[in-house]
Every structure is written in structure tokens, then in C-alpha cells.
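MODEL INPUT / OUTPUT PAIR
PAIR INDEX: 1
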Amino acid sequence: MSERSAPGNLLTMQIATSADALSCPTACAAMARRLGFDDRAAREIEIATAELATNLLRHAGGGTLTARAVLEPCPGIELETRDEGPGFADIETAMRDGFSQGKDLTLEVPPTMRSGLGAGMGAIERLMDELRIENRPGGGAIVTASKRLR
């Protein structure tokens, strides 16, 4: 997470239950509106936050999501998740639409074998201005997504 944050604009949430994952996106969208994002951009941040929070539960068994207002290099919001899960086996493949929980969700995979929409990480990348994924030594991952005010 960037240390160039605006004072008083930090929100850290533990994601351990589905209720946590449901409340987190609303809080981040409210923060985005306070920072000056228009309704469309705030909604995009809300969707990206929902994907990040859901991924924390589904793939890592929970973790922490932090939203932070940043001032440099230009004003915006940064979302960061940290977990102690298995990390990303293949980051490039995880970014592909149609891939979820290690399963390729193409037509060749029967619907009963599918798990998830398979568009989460790719959707986050499209909705936000920047997305970084880092596997942590010893397990877990750090995912950082940022969106700048235009």
C-alpha cells in the first residue's frame, strides 16, 4: 500500500464471513464518493471491491481488505487485499476470463463442474486503472488495485 495517503482516509476490514464481504463494497463506494469519484466510477470501485472480498473468502478462507485514499502520483483510491491462502498458482491464467478456482470454465467443462463466474480478476483489471498481484513467500497473496480521479 502506498504511504502517500490522504489523512483520515483509511478503511481496513477483516473479511471472514459472507456478511463482511457484502458490507465491504458499500463502504468503499461511499469512500470513493467522498473523494470525488462520480457515480459510475464509485460503482466500478464497488464491483471491484466485491470481487476482491469474495475472492478472499472463496480462495483464501478470508483476509484483510484495506481501502486508502492516495494523493500521489495523482488523487485516487487504492484497494489492497492480504491473505494467508495458497496464493496464485499461475497469475497469468488467473487473469483470463473463464478461469475460476483452477478450473477452465469453457464449454468443454460441464456446468456441474464449474465453480464461480471466472471473470473476477479480469473484471477488476478492466474496472480499475491498475492491478498488481504478488504471491507472498511462505503462502498468501497481496492484490492491489487502484483507480485515479480523472
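PAIR INDEX: 2
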Amino acid sequence: MAAFTGSLIPLLAQAMHLQGQPLADPDYYAAAAQITAHLGAIVEPPARHLGIRGLQDLFREHADRLSHWVPDRRVPPDNNRCERELRPTVIARKVSFGSQSEAGAQTREVLMSVLHTLRKRRADAPAHLKWVLDRLAIEPKRDPFALLFLNDTS
């Protein structure tokens, strides 16, 4: 187990630090490909330890999801930004003792997803959300997705 993690952890750290390196594109992509090849070599032979085998399976079965950063250096190899953006929502949920029902939890998930997306797309997300809700009150058959995200302001 120590040999597996001792090989895997430094490669993952290299992947996370690669984006910040002042490399020309060809050098970056060559290094990214090399890291990915080394990761593949580590996870390919099935381990005897079931925990390690489960981790290897994760890497093998979701290789396409785990390597979006390789062909496009603008994509970070980690999800730290996502984790930081979710933190206030998670803290608010814990402080308020969560939702009292499954429907309440789903409503919170949808609303938070919409609000976070709007914050990335609109200068004044709360004002746009209010505008959408006002529009839907007048025209309930309108497509909320189009109003929220497709610049459908007619």
C-alpha cells in the first residue's frame, strides 16, 4: 500500500503544480502527457489490496473525467476552486441544521446551483433572478432555463 501511495501522491502533486509553471505550451503538454502516462502505469496492474484496487478502478473507469486538464492547460487538474465555492453553502446548511425533508434538500440544491451559475454569468445575479421570477409570474409557460441562462430577455 505504501508503495502505491508513494508513487501516486507525487504524481498528483506534479499535476496540480504543473499549471502554475512558466512553461511554453509544447513543454506543458509534454509534461502533462508524461504525468498521465505514469499515472496509467501505476493504476494498470491490479493490486492485491482491495482498497488500492478500488482506487485503481476509479482511475481506470473514469480516466476521461480525471484528465480534462491534459489537453487544455486552462483546465485545472484539481477541484479546489469548486470546493472553495461550495464551502459557504455547506456551512450555511450545517448552521441551519439542513433541510427538514428530501424535497427541501433538493430545492436548496437546485437554488444554490442556479445562483452559483448566475454569479458566474451575470454582473448582478440577484437582480437577474428577480427579473426571471417576475417574468415567470406574468408568463408561467415561459422556459425558466432560457430566461435564466440563454439571454432570453424578450
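PAIR 2 NOTE: Residues 80-149 form one domain.
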